[in-house]
Write a structure and sequence with these properties.
With 369 residues, this protein is an alpha/beta fold. The protein is built from ten helices and 22 strands. The strands form five sheets. Strands 8, 11, 12, 13, 14, 15, 16, 17 and 18 form a nine-stranded parallel β-sheet that branches. A four-stranded mixed β-sheet has the order 5-4-1-6, with no helix packed on it. The radius of gyration is 20 Å and the shape is globular. It starts with a strand and ends in a 7-residue tail after the last strand.
């Protein structure tokens, strides 16, 4: 297949005119414009821009299914996969909520079995283990009754049951034993600070121990103030990847712009944090073990707490641009950066020979300032 008469996003996130040849799902050539067909099929881009496929590294569900609560994990993942592909997503990491530990073990086993077979749409890129090693004080939409203190043996068991597909494990760094947990967990996967009331000093120590990621930065954390900057400031100062939910609900646009200015394009990751209502509209849905009501673009628990997002990753990209993030920086935040965070950047995240041909298309206007 030859993609011609258009532009590509280069590996350096510039836009250049080029043709791209793919074969058997792999990019085989990046050619000067006007390349001759060798008899294969062609797609005329008509001046549009070929982009790496998007990567949503933190999503709980969509189209009425919830990764944490569905008994048929294979069917759940396939539903998520097909919807996400329709939104330009190449790969995703389903996120597990806080639930009874035995239930979490069973979920890991079901996901291991389900992930052995290819999905019909966006690819499975590993599990995002958000619960259960979180702070009750900052539980938000996580179930506090099932939260556990950091326990590396429990994580190792989950990791083994998942077929070693856990790519991110979350922890509240202020919990007793968190430092040793972080050091050992970092040998298995990326460790993320999440749902935490940690102060700045604790955040600094957590990064030194091995935290390299921030789960939905600012949300379910103490606010940054002039005398108590909290863990968010420590994460901003570090080399950690920082997730932002760019749905216009979770974070003010000015804070999104300021965060981008502080951490730059290479550490910003836009996530959906999507839940079952994504793609369906208003109504009542499940998020893990909790009931959520969706009205407009907001998903909330009965106590009023925000409960994930209903904004898909491609729409979140557009919102980030509308908030003032340069388009190619925002694109990097939904492609290469999450691919790197999940450890799949060897096949996804950029358009390069030998990489996956899971690509998407943008109009030029969508990627211009």
């Amino acid at each position: 297949m030859l993609y011609r008469n258009g532009f590509i996003v280069t590996r350096n996130f510039t836009i250049e005119r080029a043709d791209v040849r793919v074969s058997k799902g792999i990019i085989t050539d990046i050619l000067p414009p006007g390349a001759l067909s060798d008899g294969e099929g062609e797609i005329d881009l008509r001046g549009d821009v070929l982009s790496p496929g998007l990567v949503d590294m933190h999503i709980h569900g969509c189209m009425g299914v919830d990764f944490s609560s569905e008994a048929d994990t294979a069917a759940c993942l396939d539903t998520m996969s097909r919807y996400l592909q329709s939104r330009g997503v190449a790969a995703f990491a389903p996120a597990a909520m806080t639930m009874p530990y035995d239930s979490l073990c069973r979920l890991m086993e079901r996901c291991r079995i389900a992930s052995m077979n290819p999905l019909s749409g966006a690819a499975f890129a590993g599990i995002y283990l958000e619960g259960p090693f979180l702070s009750v004080e900052k539980c938000a939409a996580q179930s506090p009754e099932y939260m556990l203190p950091p326990d590396i043996d429990k994580l190792r068991k989950l990791y083994r049951l998942s077929g070693e597909t856990i790519r991110v494990a979350c922890v509240a760094p202020e919990a007793a034993g968190a430092a040793s947990f972080i050091r050992e967990a970092a040998k298995l996967c990326r460790v993320s600070a999440a749902h935490t009331s940690a102060d700045y000093a604790t955040g600094v120590r957590a990064v030194e121990a091995g935290v390299s990621h921030a789960t939905h930065l600012y949300n379910a954390m103490n606010d940054v103030t002039r005398r108590e900057p909290g863990i968010a400031a420590a994460l901003l100062e570090s080399d950690c990847f920082c997730e932002l939910i760019c749905d216009g609900v979770h974070i003010h646009p000015a804070v999104i712009r300021l965060t981008h200015r502080i951490i730059g394009a290479e550490r910003l990751i836009i996530v959906s944090d999507g839940m079952a209502a994504m793609g369906l509209g208003e109504g009542s849905f499940l998020l893990g073990t909790q009931s959520v009501r969706v009205q407009g673009s907001e998903a909330r628990l009965c106590n009023g707490s925000l409960a994930g997002s209903v904004t898909d990753i491609r729409t979140a990209f557009h919102k980030a641009v509308s908030f003032g993030i340069p388009p190619l920086d925002a694109l990097r935040a939904v492609t290469l950066n999450p691919a790197r965070a999940l450890g799949v950047d060897g096949t996804l995240g950029t358009i390069e020979v030998g990489k996956s041909a899971r690509l998407t298309v943008f109009r030029q206007a969508e990627l211009s300032v």
